[in-house]
Amino acid sequence: MLDLERLNLRNPWLDVCAIALWGLVLLKLWLGGQLHLLIHPAYHWLTIFAGIALSAIALVKTAELLKKTSRQNSRARNSQAEHLNFFPPGLGSCILIFTAVLGLIIEPTVFVSATALQRGVNDFLPITQSQPQSFGQVTRPEEKTIIDWVRTLNVYPEPDAYSGQKVNVEGFVVHSPVLPDNYFTITRFVMTCCAADVYPVGLPVKLETSRDRYPQDTWLAVQGEMITEEFSGKRQLTIQPSSIEEIPVPANPYHY
């Protein structure tokens, strides 16, 4: 069994290494253009500031450690030994270093249909999530995104009120098990704070053929008009497409 007490986990360089690595992770995400996959744009400045601050702190602590004499280090170690800790000193820094290395190695990816099905695709916004920011008359129907339509439905959830309106939206395909085989859901993820709280919203698309023609996770641009359909006794706003075109994954796949 690994004896953590015998390991030299009290080395102050572990703390410096953990701080430096986490600063590097945040700066890597920023400079690599991947920050939007994990953090809401409203918090980008805070994340970037944290990355710069952690890097600066690591440099300052490195300079301080290099100046310390062996006598001062000995006193510091003796002082730390007098404290009673549940976990071995330095274990927290090792965990931070391990997770930071994973953050440097593993590239963030876009959520897909499996996550959407697991979290449930809705055409409404839960009370605890992002609330309506605009209403229908502000934006022309054909200029609305999926999240615009969902916000509009949140304000006035009567699908017949929008029947016949033009629609032009982009999203990825989800085959919902609660819909017949000739329907798929055009879906986008909405991020309110970070990747941990993303949730899917979408609208059903009615087809003349089987939805197997459009595999899950395929990104599509769907044009057509709104109609009202009934699923499991619930009337729901649905897209009657006039054009369905495959598109590449957008640079920013999330709505906010």
Write the element-wise H/E pattern from the N-terminal end onward.
HHHHHHEEEEEE
The CATH topology of the largest domain, please? OB fold (Dihydrolipoamide Acetyltransferase, E2P)
Gross geometry: elongated
Number of domains: 2
- The residue-averaged pLDDT reads 83
**Multimeric organization:** single chain
Organism: Desertifilum tharense IPPAS B-1220
Keywords: Membrane, Transmembrane, Transmembrane helix
Transmembrane segments: 12-31, 43-63, 84-106
InterPro entries: DUF1980, DUF1980_C, DUF1980_N, UPF0703_membrane_permease
Written overview of the protein:
The protein is α+β, with helices and mostly antiparallel strands. It folds into two domains: 12-68 and 88-105; 113-129 and 139-246, Bacterial OB-fold (OB fold (Dihydrolipoamide Acetyltransferase, E2P), Beta Barrel). The chain has helices at residues 12-31, 44-67, 70-81, 91-105, 113-119, 146-155; strands at 166-174, 183-190, 199-206, 219-231, 234-246, 254-255. Strands 1, 2, 3, 4, 5 and 6 form a six-stranded mixed sheet that branches. β2 (183-190) and β3 form a beta hairpin. α1 (12-31) packs parallel to α4. The longest helix is centred in the first third of the chain and has 24 residues, at 44-67. The protein is elongated.
Compile the SSE list and pairings.
Blueprint: H1 12-31, H2 44-67, H3 70-81, H4 91-105, H5 113-119, H6 146-155, E1 166-174, E2 183-190, E3 199-206, E4 219-231, E5 234-246, E6 254-255
Helix pairs in contact: 1-2, 1-4
